[in-house]
Design brief:
Structural class: mainly alpha
Distance between the termini: 24 Å
CATH topology of the largest domain: Growth Hormone, Chain: A
Order of helices and strands: HHHHHHHHHHHHHHHHHH
CATH class of the largest domain: Mainly Alpha
Shape: globular
Radius of gyration: 20 Å
CATH superfamily of the largest domain: MFS general substrate transporter like domains
Largest sheet: none
Length: about 425
C-alpha cells in the first residue's frame, strides 16, 4: 500500500468514527427512554460473547487437530484470524452503522456470530477456518461499536459502564476457556462443545433487540458531515502507542491460542489447562477495575506498565524453562502481565487532548495494532513446527515482551499527540 493510500484509508476511518461519535449523541434521549437497565443487560450479554469464540478453541485444539488431521500451520492460521478480523472491522463498522443504524449493525453482528459458531463445527479444516472467520467478523464489528454506544447512552456513567463492559468481556473469555472442556465431556465432542456457545449469542441478540429498540431509528447514526480531523501518521508518539497496543495484543492472542496446548503437552489435563487459561482472563478483571483508575490519576503510567511487563516476562520465563514445575504460578504471572491491556486503552485516552484526537489515535492504534497482533499466533505455530519444540517460540515471546515494555514506558509518559 502506498503512503498516499495509507493516509486516505486511515483518514477515512477517522472521519467515519467521528461521525459515529456524533451519531451516538443523536440517539441519546431515545435510548434513555428505552430504559437504561435493559440496555445495560444487553451490553453485558453482548460483551460476554466477545471472547468465548476465541478462548474456547485453545483447550480443544489438540483434539481438533487430531480429529481433523490438521497441521501446526493450520492451527496457527486458526488462531490468527481474530486479530486480522479486528483490524479490518475498524473500516467496516462505522461505514455499516451509518447506513443501517448502530442497533441494527450490532444485531446483524450477533447473527453473523451465531452463524459462524454453527458453521465452523459442520465439516473439515477449511470449514472450521471459514466459520471462525465469519464468527470473528461479527465480534470485530461489535468491538468497535459498543464503546460508541456506551459513550452516547450513558454520558454520566461512562467510567462505570466501561468497567462493567470490560469485566464482562474478560469474564466471557474466562468462561470460554474454563467451561468448554466441561462441555466437551458432557456433550460428547469438540463440535458440540464449540457449537453450544451459539446459545449465548442468541440470548444476547434477544436482549439487544429488547434493550436497544428505542434508539434504533433510521438516520440516528448519520448526522450531517463533520470536519475531517488531522492524521496522526506522522506523530512519533502515535506510532509508539500503536506499537504498545499491538505488541500487547500480539502476546495476548498467542497465549489465548497456544498456552493450553503447551500445558497439555507438558502433562496438564485438558480441563485444568482450560481452567488455567480462564484464570488468566479473570485476573484481568480486578486489574481493569482497580489499577487503571489509579494509573490514570498519575501524570505518567509508565511505572505500572513496566511493573506488569516484568511480571508477564517472569511467567514466560517459567513456561520456557520449567513449564511443568508450576503451571499455576506461571499462569498467574502471565495473567498479571496481560492485564496491561486495560492500561493500553487508558493510554490511548490520556495521550490525546480532545475527543477528535482520541478517535484518531484509537483508530490508528487498534487498526494497525490488531494487524500486528494477527501475526502472533501464526508465527508461534510456525516456529514450533520448524523447531520441533517450544523453546524458540517462547524466546520470540520474550523479545516481543521487551518491545512491549519499552514502547509502553514511552507511551505512558505525560505527553500528547
Amino acid at each position: 500500500m502506498t503512503r498516499t493510500a495509507c493516509n486516505k484509508t486511515l483518514g477515512q476511518y477517522e472521519h467515519d468514527l467521528e461521525l459515529e461519535l456524533e451519531g451516538a449523541a443523536e440517539f441519546r434521549p431515545a435510548t434513555m427512554a428505552a430504559g437504561g437497565a435493559l440496555l445495560t443487560v444487553a451490553v453485558v450479554l453482548t460483551a460476554l460473547n466477545l471472547r468465548p469464540a476465541i478462548t474456547s478453541v485453545g483447550p480443544l485444539l489438540p483434539e481438533m487437530r487430531g480429529a481433523l488431521g490438521a497441521s501446526d500451520t493450520w492451527a496457527g492460521i486458526l488462531t490468527t484470524l481474530p486479530g486480522l478480523c479486528f483490524a479490518a472491522a475498524g473500516l467496516a463498522a462505522p461505514w455499516l452503522s451509518r447506513r443501517i443504524g448502530l442497533g441494527r449493525t450490532v444485531s446483524a453482528a450477533l447473527l453473523i456470530l451465531v452463524a459462524g459458531l454453527l458453521i465452523r463445527v459442520c465439516d473439515g479444516p477449511l470449514v472450521v477456518l471459514g466459520g471462525t472467520l465469519v464468527a470473528t467478523a461479527g465480534i470485530a464489528l461489535i468491538n468497535v461499536l459498543i464503546p460508541v454506544i456506551i459513550r452516547g447512552s450513558f454520558p454520566a456513567q461512562v467510567g462505570l459502564m466501561t468497567g462493567i463492559y470490560t469485566a464482562a468481556l474478560q469474564g466471557g473469555g474466562a468462561l470460554g476457556s474454563a467451561v468448554t472442556p466441561v462441555l466437551d465431556d458432557a456433550l460428547g465432542g469438540w463440535r458440540s462443545a464449540l457449537g453450544a456457545w451459539s446459545a449465548l449469542a442468541l440470548l444476547a441478540l434477544a436482549a439487544w433487540v429488547v434493550g436497544a429498540r428505542g434508539f434504533d431509528r433510521p438516520g440516528a447514526a448519520a448526522p450531517a458531515a463533520t470536519t475531517k480531523g488531522r492524521s496522526l501518521l506522522r506523530s512519533k508518539l502515535a506510532w509508539t502507542v500503536t506499537l504498545f497496543f499491538g505488541t500487547q495484543s500480539f502476546l495476548a492472542y498467542v497465549v489465548m491460542g497456544w498456552l493450553p496446548e503447551v500445558l497439555i503437552e507438558n502433562g496438564t489435563s485438558e480441563t485444568r489447562a482450560g481452567l488455567l487459561l480462564g484464570l488468566i482472563s479473570l485476573i484481568a478483571v480486578p486489574i481493569s477495575l482497580i489499577v487503571s483508575p489509579l494509573a490514570a490519576r498519575r501524570d505518567s503510567q509508565s511505572g505500572w506498565i513496566v511493573g506488569l511487563g516484568v511480571l508477564g516476562m517472569a511467567g514466560i520465563l517459567g513456561l520456557l524453562i520449567a513449564p511443568a514445575a508450576a503451571p499455576l504460578l506461571w499462569s498467574v504471572l502471565v495473567g498479571l502481565g496481560m492485564s496491561v491491556f486495560s492500561l493500553a486503552l487508558t493510554v490511548i485516552a490520556l495521550r490525546a487532548r480532545d475527543a477528535q484526537d482520541t478517535a484518531s489515535l484509537s483508530g490508528m492504534a487498534q487498526g494497525f495494532g490488531y494487524l500486528l497482533a494477527g501475526v502472533g499466533p501464526f508465527m508461534f505455530g510456525l516456529l514450533h513446527q520448524v523447531s520441533g519444540g517450544w523453546t524458540v517460540p517462547w524466546l520470540m515471546m520474550l523479545g516481543v515482551y521487551l518491545v512491549q515494555t519499552l514502547a509502553g514506558a514511552l507511551a505512558g509518559r505525560n505527553r500528547y499527540v
